[in-house]
Structure formats: C-alpha cells, structure tokens
Amino acid sequence: MSYLKFDKSRLVNLEYSLSREVLRSNRTGSYVSTTISGCNTRKYHGLLVCPLDELDGDRHVLLSAFDETVVQRGAEFNLGIHKYGDDYYEPKGHKYIRDFVIDRIPKTTFRVGGVILHKERILVPEGQQVLTRYTLKEASSPTVLRFKPFLAFRSVHQLSKANLYANTKYQKVPNGIKMKLYEGYPFLHMQFSKTAEFVAVPDWYNNIEYLKEKNRGYDYQEDLFVPGYFEVPIEKGESIVFSASTSEVNANALKTRFTRELNKRHPRDTFIGSLVNAGQQFFVFKGQTADLVAGFPWYGYMPRQTFVALPGLTLDLEKTDLFEAVVDTQLKYLKDGLFPCVNGKKHPAYHCMDTPLWFFWALQQYANEVKNSNYIWEKYGQAMKQILDAYRNGTNFNIRMNHLGLIEGEAENMALTWMDSYVGGKPVVQRAGMPVEVNALWYNTICFALELAQAVGDKAFVKEWEALPKQIADSFIQEFWCEEHGYLADSVRGDKKDWSVRPNMVIAAALDYSPLDREKQKQILSVAKQQLLTPRGLRTLSPESNDYEGICAGSVAEREKTLHMGTVWPWLLQFFVEGYLKIHKRGGLPFVKKIIEGFEEEMTEHCIGTIPENYNGNPPHKGKGAISQAWSVSALIRAYKMALKFIE
C-alpha cells in the first residue's frame, strides 16, 4: 500500500492536480518532471531532460510531452493536456484520470467508457532514457493507442519558437524513429516494445503556456514541434513499453528492461523512506567523480549547499564512501582557500566566505561518524591547513582574520554569505563586515582542527593555533552578544551592529564547538522559537521587523527582495533541532517530533515525496522556489535522526 495518497475525487480538478508536481532524476543528472495531471506548468518540465556536456553542459528538454489517445470504434479520446491562452486547455485528458498513486513509481489510471488504461513511468538510473509502460486493464472492443510526441530540443532556461531552421526529418529505427531538431544535439530515439506505425504529420503547436513561469514573471509561451503520431494496437491485459532515449535500444528487450528497473525500486511506504528516496536523486556520477545537485529543476552544483546537505544525505544513511567521493570532487575546485559559488562553470566566481567553513563542519560530522582522526588528518589535513592560512593571512574579497581573531569580508555590491539575493544589481542583505554564523563556524573550525591535530600528535599545528580559540570566543561575545536583547547581532561592521532577528545566530547555538555558554544558547533558541520558527522551518527575518516580507511572490525583483526578509528556509531547521535537543534533551523531544511530523502532509503537496527550497513566511506557508532542494531534504533527515537517538 502506498504511503503517498491523493484524493481521487479531486484528480480531475486542475487547481488540485496542477499544483502537485512529480520529479525523478538519475545518476547522470537527467530528470523527468511534470504535474500529476500531465500538464506541464514550467519550462523546466519535460519527460526527458538531459545534461548535454557535448553541447554546453546545461540541461536540455528533448521530449516535452507525449500525448496518448485511445481509439475505439472510430471514436478518439485524447488523454493529453496543454494550456493555451485565456486559461484554455486542449485536449482535456485530465477528465479521464481516475487514480494516481506513487508506490515505487508513479502510476496513473485512465477510464474512458469501457477502457481502463494504466500508465507507469521509469527513468533509467544510468544513461538518458525514460520508459513508459501502458497496460490495458479493461476494453470492451478492439483498441488502438495513438501517441503524439512534443519535441523541444532547447535549454531548460529558454523557450522554443517555431522556425525554419529545425530539422524536421526523421529516420527509422527498430519499432520507431529518431530525430534531432538542431545540430549539436543527440538524436532522440522513440521506440516501442512492439511494431508501431508512424504517420508523419509535421506541425508546430504554437503558444503553449506554462502557468508557473507566467506567475513568476518570466516568458511563458512556447512552440513545440510534433513530427506526427504513432499507432499501436493493444489487447486487453497487454502491456506496451515506450522508450525515449539519446541512444538506440533493443526494442524487443524493453518489457524486460522495464520490469527489471521496477524491481530495483524501493517502495516509498514511510515518511523517512520518502525523504531518503528524494535524497538519493541529488547525486550525479561522472566517471570517477560524484557531485550533488543543489536542487531541481534549475540549480547546478553549489559547494556551500553541498557541504550543508552532505551529512544528512550520506552519513545519516551510513554512506561514508559516498560522502568522501563528493568531498573529493569539491576539493578539486579549491583555490586560494575558497570554493567556487557554483562548480562546473568556465569562469567560476569565488566569493562565498562561509563555504570553506561549511567544509570543516561537514568533515566534523564525518569525524563524529567514523572516529578515525588519523585517516581524516592524513587525507584532508593539507586542504584544511590551506584554508586556515588563507583566512588568517587574507584572501579574495577582503576575506580575512582581523585583529580580534574574527573573520570579516566585504566587496562592493556583492553578498558573500548564503543570503545572496539581489535587486538592481545590489544585495538585498549586504551583511558586510563580520557575519555571525561565519564567525561561529570559524570558532568551530579552529577547535575541530585542533581536536584532530592533538589526536594525531601534530604538535607544530597545535602550537601555531592553540591560542586562537579563546581570543575568538572572547571577541565573539564582545562583538555579537547583547545582554539586553538576549540574542546575537546578525552582522557587525565597525561600530555598526545589525540587531535584526535572523536565523543565522541559531547556527552558533547548535555547533559542536560554540563560543556561547548554555544560558546564551538557551536565550537564542527561545527568541528563534518565538519569532522565527514556523511549521516549515525558520524565517529569515522576524515578523516584528518593519522590513519583514511574508509572501514570496510577484516579479523576479519582488521575489528576490523577500527571499531573505521573511521567507522560510527548511535547511535551517536542523540547527534549531540540534540546539533545542542539546538544551532540553528528552524533554524537548515531543516538541521536535511535532515539527518533523508536520512535514508529512508536505509529502503530497508541491512536489510529491520531497521538500522544496523555501516557503512563505506567512501562514499557510506555501512552498516556493525550487521544487526539490538537497539541503531541505537533508535537514529533515538529520532532524529525524537526531530525534531518533533520544527515542532509542
């Protein structure tokens, strides 16, 4: 029985079905994504979306949609659905949906008169291939299935327009055809498990609209090319498998391949099982390297988010080898003591002042798990020393240790921390000078490095750094703490201190090595609980602030303005939970469990079985941003595991 359940009576309601998205990615970085109605609402949606290293390394939508039509006794029932202008949907295949379930894979049940048809879809783990199985469960007369492919052949960030340059010719392959609309692209092979007749009727379908893009203030109309249609007869009880792939496959083996892939899938029959399943989808393997996609559908490889998400997606699932593989990939990009903001760019930017400190934090979680200081120091010690020296001596963007022993950084019109939204080319939250979480992480970093060095007997390193923790701790309290407020300043620049109530101070209260005593940690968590905590994570600004923005909506600029002025981010929840349980121990368990269990209803909202990037600050805290975010999923897994330790 599937854990993920949907209201059958509301599946035909577009307001219900269009707001629920499905996503599946694989080890190559390819993905399938649409809504449970089958109507694409984003330019990022598609049935085969692949990273094309041979083109530009970006993800590209090859097959946007694949409309099915049931033909019986001359009558045609089209199961597809597309949105056009004036809220016009054509065809209206959603009205035939009778059930939608997700156990191991999504399965949609259509009913048309006496016909009951099941549709199931699998993205092959390795390679760029999606398989769809159609099973005719009931039929009162001879039945033919007709299929119409909608081709895009464009980057996920762009939209296709009808043009004279597209190559509309096709070539025959076993049980299907192959096409590529433009040079530089691979062929898209469309093949069936049985003989299919292809009828060429080339045409552009103009002005298909994507509702989510329209609401987000982006271009939202697209023209898709349909080369014609396939027809396949099907008998009651029979299954037919369709393959869309960038390489030719053995059509006769498609049924076997589908069954084999299905048997590999684990059922999503629990809350934590669904989270673990979602977490596995962020990993991408290329040759001997492994990396972590920050989020779907538009994010790439972001080291900051990778280091924050990695422990929850690997160590908490006893996958230490995978942890090491991803860290080893990140270290290839280390330069001047800093990691790039995004991996894989031709000219990467290196202005994330906190990312190297998150690297230490991730290693610290690894050390807590494997308890092998010698191995960690031997393998990662050189990189750790390089980073520490860069911070102490100074590196790019004025990132350096000052006379107080604290870390500061500043660059004109640049955000150096995770709060990096921009409007008009300027950061919404500058946080120039000394950000609070950066300096809490700095203290934790030095203490952790000394812990390792002492354990392995590196006396030279200990002698060089052992006096610093006390100086950092004393300076930290002096600069950031206010007894009257009872919490930490969010950033300090000279004599100016930002006393906005923000969640970054919670990180300082949760670290293994904190410059704060227990009473100060308790006060910080109390303020965060009262002003920042929501059922979906921590707000980025207290609602008591005049600058608070509770709804993330509108134009690009309007959304960017709100992202760090009140929007809720789930990734911060793990630090609140960790700090709260350290203070309250088993007594805090009922409260923590309530927060975690509150996310169960999210499993069938927004994007099925996963957690989005952020939420509105105001109730009912609607999901926003990327539909599946690595550090959001990781935070819930880590919080769950922390709570489990107290239960056990």
Features:
648 residues, alpha+beta, Beta-galactosidase, Chain A, domain 5, Glycosyltransferase, eight-stranded antiparallel β-sheet, 36 strands, elongated
Please give a structural write-up:
- With 648 residues, the chain is an alpha+beta fold.
- The chain folds into two domains: 8-264, Distorted Sandwich (Beta-galactosidase, Chain A, domain 5); 271-647, Glycosyltransferase.
- Helix content is 31%, strand content 27%.
- The strands form eleven sheets. Strands 1, 2, 3, 4, 5, 12, 16 and 17 form an eight-stranded antiparallel sheet that branches. It has an eight-stranded antiparallel sheet with strand order 8-9-10-11-18-15-14-13, with helices on one face.
- Strand 22 (400-401) and strand 23 (407-408) form a beta hairpin.
- The longest helix is centred in the middle third of the chain and has 21 residues, at 373-393.
Tell me briefly what this model is:
The protein is of the alpha+beta class and 648 residues long.
Instruction: Kindly provide the radius of gyration, computed on alpha-carbon positions and rounded to a whole number of angstroms.
Output: 26 Å
* Largest sheet properties: 8 strands, antiparallel
- Indicate the percent of residues in helices: 25-40%
Helical region count? 17
* End-to-end CA span: 27 Å
Mean pLDDT: 95
